[in-house]
Amino acid sequence: MALAEERVLSIQSHVVFGYVGGKAAVFPLQCLGYDVDVVNTVNFSNHSGYGRSGGSKTTAEELKTIFQAMERNELLRPTRLLTGYIPGAEALSAVEKLASKLKHAKPSLIYLLDPVMGDAGRIYVAPDVIPVYKEMLPLATIITPNWFEVELLTDIKLNDIESLHQALEILHMKYHVPNVVISSIPLEPWLAEALPPSIRPTKHSDSYEPHLLCIASSFPTASATLNGRVLHPSQPIVHAQCVPLIPGYFSGVGDLFSALLLAHFHPDTTPETLHASPLSTAVSQALSKTHAILVMTQAVAEALPEEERLPSDDELDVEDPMRKIRRMRGRELALVRGQDLIRGHGITHVREMISWEGFGGSK
């Protein structure tokens, strides 16, 4: 829960039906005690995975008008800022100017920047947003890019442990991002082999059990301490954890994860667990709750009538668009049903982020 009265300004997409963007983020934040002010960067009927949708994008001028009116009315009062899907460079630049103004007025503002650009090698926003995101990185307290977005931001192809070191170094040192969290990373063999043995999945023959990896990297200030120990400011503190892969297509998972991470991040508190950090503690909670919601969503989907859980088939989906729509509809995140999980009730196992000892030393 929020430790004190706090207010989040959420700037991201909106859908009428389903749970992606703000619909996946605002309710969990409210469940955890935060007041949330919502600005929609798009207003769509549903997410694009359905194959067809309707609605409009919010223009840069419309965003500026909203921000200016809020400022005139003294309604820009966030203690935390969350930004997600913003489809174009002009709109993103308007958000960047607002974020800069808010950080200047309140340096303690916690800003979680989710640089939503694409996934699995495919970019789904205008490419001209990439340089704008690079300009925004120094404003962020935490960023939550996926694997592909890290490559876009750093111009580093992640294909071995050395390239991962280089990418994190660029984000921390060149762009001065103090906290980087990369979730839902496909666990390639080279990455699995480099992990601490305590979290490495079981290996069968030449392959590991299907898992996704989450990495959290914090770069401490020169005066930072952890459990009474002065931290060396020349290398990041890295934590990692694996979660079993749940098969099937889900939307809004990253939006939910980022909201939960922002909600649980309390930089001024001392972690109860040895070798934990404020970031790793927040990621542990976000990872555990997100996975629990996905398990519940999968159970709900598997209990649906057969016509609502037919497997993907591009040809059949083109012939009968409702076939795909029924499948997507049945896999929307079970947020309302899982609201107790969001509040922490019924979470029987917290997936603690484990200190990745030797990560920096292996460079």
Automatic annotation (TrEMBL):
Gene Ontology molecular function, alphabetical: ATP binding; pyridoxal kinase activity
BP GO terms, sorted: pyridoxal 5'-phosphate salvage
Nucleotide-binding as UniProt keyword: yes
Pfam families: Phos_pyr_kin (PF08543)
Sorted UniProt keywords: ATP-binding, Kinase, Nucleotide-binding, Transferase
Family of this protein: Belongs to the pyridoxine kinase family.
Stated name of the protein: pyridoxal kinase
